[in-house]
Design brief:
Chain A: Belongs to the sigma-70 factor family. ECF subfamily. The complex is a heterodimer of chains A (154) and B (206). Chain A is built from seven helices and no strands. Chain A has 154 residues and is mainly α. Classes of the chains: A mainly alpha (154), B alpha/beta (206).
Chain lengths: 154, 206
């Protein structure tokens, strides 16, 4: 990416990444994940191949940074003898609205719905990120949307 | 469905993005990952791009003539693509350029990074400040100053591709017949600068 000033990446994809992080983490920690994502991206930027799709790549980096923060959150949690909390935030009232419900979908569905509707990625791109086939990604998205519909979110 | 989902996206305002951007710049600078900081200023010569590395000012571009994106792409390619907009890091340069163009300053006290200059081109443009404020030299005279009297054409090329115009005053180099000649920021900008310097006035009131 030797010809592309990193500033243009922040300008074009900054909001997209923040929206992704908000869907995975909630509003406050999302900013930490955003910073971690773009700092890591800045460091890697000069060595990335020119044909890379920056949006898809940032989506992967952001997801990894969010998972790091979720794991750290789980480690901080007070240990009890009960089943540990799953490391994703539950639905909460406020700005997040539908995305808080997306956050508690099963992993595969959550990833696909997030990549598809927040990330704007094609099912082919999603399949390369999550593994599996394009058709499987399409099915997972449909299942996720059905769950949301059942909750009368849409 | 997708339309409805998109409509539910949480609103992210410009202020929030600006705050995150500022935080990224600070963190990148602290960890030595900010190779080039830049800002764009308005001036009597149109919009100017000022770009600096931690070593000093590395490129001054005429945004309206050269194109902001092309200047930044050149910096990305030739210096580093780790480029972020960071107005605060260029306060001193912006202030001195503004003072100069207002006729309130005749020289600059700013560190320069000459990494866009190599070999003979570097020799030529770093000799430019030896032409005093308010006077001019011909391309041939500049060739003599750098002790390569026959390299007039190469001197012309070096001036034409000067990465730090205004600070390294290539506008003071004129044709042998005294006419101003070409300029990276546009021929009329060169005329304006020469007129400003000759009367110690401002580049704005021509």
């Amino acid at each position: 990416m030797a010809d592309t000033p990193f500033e243009s990446v922040v300008t074009e994809h900054g909001r997209h990444v923040l929206t992704l992080c908000m869907a995975m983490l909630g509003s406050d920690e999302a900013e930490d994940a955003w910073s971690e994502t773009f700092l890591a991206a800045l460091r890697a930027w000069p060595d990335l191949p020119d044909d890379l799709d920056p949006r898809a790549w940032l989506t992967v980096v952001a997801r990894r940074k969010c998972l790091d923060l979720l794991r750290a959150r789980a480690r901080r949690a007070v240990p009890t003898d009960r089943q540990p909390e799953v490391g994703v935030p539950g639905p909460e009232p406020g700005d997040e609205g539908v995305w808080a419900h997306v956050a508690v979908l099963p992993t595969k569905q959550r990833q696909v719905v997030t990549y598809r509707y927040l990330g704007g990625l094609s099912y082919a791109q999603i399949a390369t990120l999550t593994g599996g086939t394009e058709a499987a990604a399409r099915r997972a998205a449909a299942d996720g949307l059905k769950t949301l519909r059942a909750k009368e979110i849409r | 469905m997708s339309e409805g989902m998109a409509a539910d996206l949480p609103q992210i305002d410009d202020e929030r993005m600006a705050r995150l951007h500022g935080r990224l710049v600070e963190r990148a600078a602290r960890s030595a990952d900010l190779d080039v900081a830049y800002r764009v200023i308005d001036s009597p010569l149109g919009r100017l791009v000022l770009a600096a590395t931690p070593r000093g000012l590395v490129r001054v571009g005429f945004a309206d003539v050269e194109g902001e994106e092309r200047v930044l792409a050149e910096v990305a390619r030739e210096v580093s693509p780790k480029v972020l907009r960071s107005p605060g890091r260029l306060d001193k340069a912006a202030q001195q350029v503004e003072e100069y163009l207002a006729g309130r300053r005749s020289g600059f006290e700013i560190a320069l990074d000459l990494s866009l200059l190599g070999g003979f081109r570097g020799e030529v443009v770093t000799a430019l400040p030896r032409i005093p404020y308010g006077s001019t030299a011909s391309y041939g005279e500049l060739a003599a100053i750098v002790e390569r009297p026959r390299a007039v054409r190469a001197v012309g090329t070096a001036c034409a591709t000067n990465p730090l115009p205004l600070l390294l005053p290539c506008h003071r180099v004129v044709r042998a017949d005294g006419s101003p000649g070409r300029y990276r920021g546009g021929d009329s900008a060169k005329v304006a600068l020469l007129e400003m310097e000759s009367r110690g006035g401002s580049a704005a009131d021509r």
